[in-house]
Design a protein that fits this description.
Elements lengths: L14 E2 L2 E2 L5 E5 L2 E5 L7 E10 L2 E11 L25 H20 L21 E7 L2 E5 L6 E2 L9 H15 L7 E8 L6 E7 L5 H17 L5 E7 L5 E5 L3 E4 L6 E3 L9 H17 L4 E5 L7 H6 L3 E6 L2 H9 L6 E5 L2 H7 L7 E4 L8 H10 L3 E6 L2 H13 L2 E9 L9 E8 L1
Parallel strand pairs: 4-6, 11-12, 16-17, 16-19, 17-18, 19-20
Antiparallel strand pairs: 1-5, 2-3, 3-4, 5-6, 7-8, 7-10, 8-9, 10-11, 12-13, 14-15, 20-22, 21-22
Helix pairs in contact: 1-9, 2-3, 7-8
């Protein structure tokens, strides 16, 4: 089926998928027109179903797979076709790693005009399944689940392969607990996290209206009791207002993310942390090696969060200043155990960089949100001329834009390394390094 007058002559034609692109879709051609087809693999020959044209670009769903690519596999999850949680589970692990590296390299070249060089390889996650220690479930009429692909209806699933067994059990406890609650619960979503150290559970409730203090406390108490009855560890819980996105209540101790004699890191409900703890260890280790190689003695960590990089760096004898605008994250960072010299500052990064001089700074580490760095922050960084800028990115496009600015300002790209932080999805985490010439 074809939608739009200009696409009538394309009906019934097959499409050979040439490559994968940012966002995970396959790219092929219908005549002279590029067409994006989700859930396909390079080399697939597909017969498109509904074809839509938006802003001169064609989008289609594969109605039938005519020829299978060798990059394909049978998705291990029975809910894959419907669930919106993963979009690359139909690809082999090798294909996922290959195309994350290709997409990163092509994005740096296309947007940044930067050649990442030969041999860019994805750092594989130690685990393909059971790696995800935090999930957000949507709440619809007393039910919890992921949205169906391309819709706002829920997919019913018994077990998610991406999360550990204890987190699957915690989801079952929450579902059963909510099912017993009478009356309408004004909840939009529930975020559930599992400590990789001691198995404690964190629960963040996002409300759409005022639940009421008595009812809220009753819900939290019930969840705590039911988790313990199910043989799971205790919990810390929080409530976030959907209208303001602010955490309005917390109870219980933060999750322990890393533990040891030298350093710990913590996360309260509603604060960010990397959901793949084993892969995060590799990322942190790689950054510590970079700091050691460059003999870094002082560093500013912008968007430091709960101290994921600041605390280990300080433990290696580096003087660190961490900056973040999240009160909860900064509180967690200050409460963590650290054997070194580190200061955490509650401030938005733009204001901090405008006010601070930081002469003779050895290195700056940035881990911004998807939007990347503002022009003001980039300008402030290059004016201070740190010897090295380490950039942890969750979006190749904004990374390419920001690296272009640094290169044009007299820095040189040392490396850009994709990390498979989210196996079975097209999401790309990148560790990039530029040095002052």
């Amino acid at each position: 089926m074809v939608e739009g007058k200009s696409t009538k002559n394309l009906s019934g034609k097959t499409v050979r998928i040439e490559k994968l692109v940012t966002g995970g879709d396959g790219l092929g051609r219908l005549g002279d027109d590029p067409v994006f087809v989700p859930l396909t693999a390079p080399g697939d020959l597909v017969l498109p179903g509904v074809i839509k044209r938006r802003r001169g670009v064609l989008y289609a769903k594969a109605e039938r797979l005519v020829e299978e690519s060798p990059a394909r596999r049978v998705p291990p999850c029975p809910y894959f076709q419907d669930c919106g949680g993963c979009n690359w589970m139909h690809l082999t692990c090798a294909a996922q790693a290959e195309w994350k590296a290709v997409i990163l390299s092509e994005t740096l070249r296309r947007i940044g005009g930067i050649d990442a060089g030969p041999g860019v390889e994805t750092v594989l996650s130690p685990s393909e399944f059971g790696w995800r220690h935090r999930i957000r479930l949507h709440h619809v009429r007393g039910n919890l689940g992921f949205f169906r692909r391309g819709s706002h209806s829920l997919v019913s699933w018994d077990r998610c392969l991406l999360i550990p067994d204890d987190l699957n059990r915690a989801v079952s406890v929450l579902r059963a607990s909510l099912a017993k609650k009478k009356g309408f619960l004004p909840l939009r979503s529930v975020e559930i996290a599992l400590s990789p150290v001691d198995g404690n559970i964190s629960v963040l409730w996002e409300e759409t209206g005022q639940i009421g203090q008595v009812r809220l406390m009753g819900l939290m108490t019930t969840i705590e009791e039911n988790l313990i009855s199910a043989g799971l560890a205790g919990s810390c819980q929080g409530v976030i207002s959907g209208s303001t996105s602010r955490v309005i209540r917390r109870q219980g101790s933060p999750l322990l993310l890393t533990g040891g004699a030298e350093a710990t890191t913590l996360a309260s409900p509603g604060t960010f942390f990397q959901v793949n703890p084993e892969q995060n260890k590799i990322l942190v280790s790689r950054i510590l090696s970079l700091l050691k190689e460059r003999r870094v003695r002082s560093m500013v960590d912008l968007f430091c969060g709960n101290g994921n990089f600041s605390i280990p760096a300080a433990g290696r004898g580096i003087r660190v200043t961490g900056v973040d605008s999240s009160p909860g994250a900064v509180a967690d960072a200050k409460a963590a155990t650290c054997g070194g010299e580190v200061e955490f500052v509650l401030s938005d990064v733009d204001s901090y960089m405008a006010a601070q001089k930081h002469p003779d700074l050895d290195a700056v580490l940035v881990d911004p949100p998807r939007a990347g760095l503002s022009r003001a922050v980039k300008s402030a960084l290059v004016s201070r001329r740190p010897g090295m800028i380490i950039y942890v990115s969750c979006d190749p496009a904004t990374l390419a834009r920001d690296l272009k600015f640094f290169v044009q300002s007299g820095y040189q790209l040392v490396s850009a390394e994709p990390f498979d932080m989210f196996p079975n999805s097209s999401h790309i985490e990148t560790l990039a390094v530029v040095k002052n010439l």
